Amino acid sequence: MDELTDTSSSIGLGIIGMVVAPEEEAVEVARNLIEKVQQVDVSNRRQLLELVERMLIYKFSNQTRQELAAMFGLTEWRQTKFYQEVKEEVKQEVKQEVKEEVEQEVEQKTKLKAISRMLSMGLSVEQIAQALELKVEVVREAIQKQSGEES
Fold first, then answer.
1. Lesser CB count within 10 Å: N end or C end of the chain?
2. What is the pLDDT of the chain when averaged over all its residues?
3. Using 50, 70 and 90 to split pLDDT, how confident is the model at 68?
4. Is the pLDDT at 6 greater than 50, yes or no?
5. Domains by residue range for the chain, with CATH
6. Three-class SS string for the chain?
């Protein structure tokens, strides 16, 4: 690897050099690499810049996107395929979490509405709690709350 220390002529070798270099040195290597990539023809620039950005994320995983952008002058993160993929994954995860939360909330509200009907049928608080898979305290609180609303 010592023979590969001069990465000035090759972007590929520069990327490898950045990955294996100590963090302090990698910053300078990365800056030089980004400058080189900016000079490449437009058709390859986007892919090369995306590759360099992915390697930066890998190398500096303890830094935020904003810190990396400030360190290396990268302002096009949102246009990269990597960013778009991560954004879509996060979006899907958030949708799933929200869906699950809403389902749980609807289920809880449905159970709480059933308490007064079950009580009027003569079931005990314990029987209602068991049937609805709720804690006895939750059933008692719901009954008290419903009694307060009817007053």
1. C
2. 82
3. confident
4. no
5. 2-79 (no CATH), 91-150 (1.10.10)
6. CHHHCCCCCCHHHHHHHHHHCCHHHHHHHHHHHHHHHHCCCHHHHHHHHHHHHHHHHHHCCCCCHHHHHHHHCCCCHHHCHHHHHHHHHHHHHHHHHHHHHHHHHHHHHHHHHHHHHHHHCCCCHHHHHHHHCCCHHHHHHHHHHHHHHHC
